[in-house]
TrEMBL record:
<keyword id="KW-0067">ATP-binding</keyword>
<keyword id="KW-0472">Membrane</keyword>
<comment type="similarity">
    <text>Belongs to the ABC transporter superfamily.</text>
</comment>
<dbReference type="GO" id="GO:0016887">
    <property type="term" value="F:ATP hydrolysis activity"/>
</dbReference>
<feature type="domain" description="ABC transporter">
    <location>
        <begin position="6"/>
        <end position="243"/>
    </location>
</feature>
<keyword id="KW-1003">Cell membrane</keyword>
<keyword id="KW-0762">Sugar transport</keyword>
<keyword id="KW-0677">Repeat</keyword>
<keyword id="KW-0813">Transport</keyword>
<dbReference type="InterPro" id="IPR003593">
    <property type="entry name" value="AAA+_ATPase"/>
</dbReference>
<dbReference type="InterPro" id="IPR027417">
    <property type="entry name" value="P-loop_NTPase"/>
</dbReference>
<protein>
    <submittedName>
        <fullName>Sugar ABC transporter ATP-binding protein</fullName>
    </submittedName>
</protein>
<keyword id="KW-0547">Nucleotide-binding</keyword>
<dbReference type="Pfam" id="PF00005">
    <property type="entry name" value="ABC_tran"/>
</dbReference>
<dbReference type="GO" id="GO:0005524">
    <property type="term" value="F:ATP binding"/>
</dbReference>
<dbReference type="InterPro" id="IPR050107">
    <property type="entry name" value="ABC_carbohydrate_import_ATPase"/>
</dbReference>
<feature type="domain" description="ABC transporter">
    <location>
        <begin position="256"/>
        <end position="503"/>
    </location>
</feature>
């Protein structure tokens, strides 16, 4: 058996009352890649941060690095012991050269002191060439494409001569072709003896490069599996903790959507965001779009609403059979399209304005009196009606919207768009960051909107939104549609498996 690089046994960590790690265990041999996987909140980052010296474990039966006890007090300690982290974001200094970035905070010295720029470039070039990376070390980082930036970030980590590389979602900011290049480099590093912990939601990538897979659920190691002897389905089952079942007794709406097509999208592509997206939305239908963060969901919502910066390079958007050109939010609203944005605080509300004023915003033209002036009484009456109809918990429609809870702010925003009498309502992550009670209320409001004949698109990474509400769900993966589910097929396991593998589950 090859030499063990790392052994973690029964690692525990709590934050206040939250048990982030109940019992995490795994081993890693030299030159091997372990995939650390689990649903959001399973404890993956916490475990990485303990190994990186950012947090200290509350207790552990043992943590051994190359056979010796390992409990770093801080990140510098971890670096000195050869544990180097590559963060999710590309954290290079854009205005510096590749060589300067590679050696930033870790400058090599000559016998006479710090190296000159020329010899720094030469040293960096040597490293890049060593790993077969075709980048000029004297080039500015800002001029590199994303995949090469990621490579530079990895090579920078290699200057610390790591025993173990910790990689937290290293491919999440990359496109499909860029991923390929980075995965090849990771495989090459492991071939040269570096042990790698690879944290990722992309199970297809985990299966491509990892030797073993450790599954965490609720802070606990559920299984340590050899890649050869498992499958994506088995890993997903361990992640969720329940078997694949036919869920035909779900409390679905039961309503069959009409065959009338309100929105028809064909071959829609936005460079770097969406690729060849096609689907129809019917009258009265609730159509869900889901996938991993970064799969193109918000980008799709913005493209459908014609937001600036999201113009398609190919494909068509047709409303009730008419193909639209030069699409923008003004035209979208005129055609009866509404978008509830995913970033409520930055894009959705005017925090210091009252509930009534926020609701009146998109239909300001209709709120003028006979003299063309804004009618305060019309605004107030509409605000009061919305508060009542959507059961917004507020003393009146005249309080600033910032004084409301997240759930009630969201109801006001939904009310605002309903006042435009939309035919097509796109809601981007409508229940994110909202308490459980309000989530249910918002879901009921969405059902009501659909039952009145509006075609609803829900963009969500929250599985209950998709499972409970939608008639149909489409799964996206790196900007493309990879699966569609309806009826009994529309359930968590299948959707998750498709989201993480990029292939439709059987
Ligand atoms: N600094 C912190 N303070 C309080 N709670 C924390 C802290 N860091 C993590 N947690 C909690 O610990 C649990 C595990 O979180 P962790 O970030 O390790 O999960 P994860 O598997 O990495 O999730 P994700 O895939 O979403 O990144 C979560 O419930 C999280 O909210």
């Amino acid at each position: 058996m090859s030499e063990l690089a790392l052994v973690c046994k029964d690692v525990k960590k709590t934050f206040g009352s939250i048990k982030a790690l109940r019992s995490a265990s795994f081993t890693l041999e030299k030159g091997q890649v372990v995939g650390l996987v689990g649903e959001n909140g399973a404890g993956k980052s916490t475990l990485l941060k303990i190994l990186a010296g950012v947090y200290q474990a509350d207790s552990a039966e043992s943590i051994k690095l190359l056979g010796k006890d390992y409990s770093p007090h801080n990140a510098i300690d971890a670096l000195k012991r050869g544990i180097v982290t590559i963060h999710q974001d590309i954290n290079l200094v854009e205005g510096m050269t590749v060589a300067e970035n590679i050696f930033l905070n870790n400058e090599p010295t000559s016998r006479l002191g710090i190296l000159t720029a020329g010899s720094l470039n030469a040293k960096a070039q040597e490293l890049l060439d060593h790993y077969g990376i075709e980048v000029d070390a004297s080039q500015q980082v800002s001029r590199l494409p994303n995949d090469l930036k990621k490579m530079v970030q990895i090579i920078k980590a290699m200057t610390w001569k790591p025993t173990i590389l910790l990689m937290d979602e290293p491919t999440s900011s990359l496109t499909a072709t860029e991923v390929d290049v980075v995965l090849k480099l990771i495989t090459e590093l492991s071939r040269r003896g570096v042990a790698i912990v690879f944290v990722s939601h992309y199970l297809s990538e985990v299966f491509r490069i990892c030797d073993t897979i450790t599954i965490l659920r609720d802070g606990q190691t559920i299984a340590n599996l050899q890649k050869e002897s498992t499958s994506i389905s088995e890993v997903v089952q361990h992640m969720l903790g329940r078997k694949l079942v036919e869920v035909d007794a779900r409390s679905k709406r039961g309503a069959v959507a009409s065959t009338e097509v309100l929105l028809s999208v064909r071959g829609l592509s936005v460079p770097g965001m969406l690729h060849d997206v096609s689907f129809d939305l019917h009258r009265g239908e609730i159509l869900g779009f889901t996938g991993l963060t970064g799969s193109g969901l918000t980008e799709l919502a913005k493209t459908l609403f014609g937001v600036e910066g999201y113009q398609p390079s190919k494909g068509t958007i047709a409303i009730r059979g008419n193909v639209k050109s030069h699409w923008n939010p003004g035209k979208a609203i005129k055609e009866g399209v509404a978008l509830l944005t995913g970033d409520r605080l930055r894009e959705g509300i005017l925090p210091d304005f009252t509930i009534a004023e926020n609701v009146g915003l998109p239909i300001i033209g209709k709120l003028r009196n006979a003299l063309g002036l804004l009618s305060r009484s019309k605004i107030d009456a509409m605000g009061t009606r919305c508060v009542r109809e959507l059961n917004v918990k507020a003393p009146s429609a005249h309080v600033p919207i910032r004084t409301l809870s997240g759930g009630n702010q969201q109801k006001v925003l939904i009310a605002k768009w309903l006042e435009t009498r939309p035919k097509i309502f796109i809601l981007d992550d409508p229940t994110v960051g909202i308490d459980v009670g309000s989530k249910d209320e918002i879901r009921k409001i969405i059902e009501r909107i659909a039952s009145e004949g509006v075609g609803v698109i829900i963009i969500s990474t929250e599985m209950p939104d998709i499972e409970k509400l939608c008639d149909r769900a489409i799964v996206m993966f790196r900007g493309s549609i990879v699966g569609e589910f309806a009826g009994a097929q529309l359930e968590h396991n299948r959707i998750l498996e498709t989201s993480v593998s990029g292939r439709k589950a059987a």
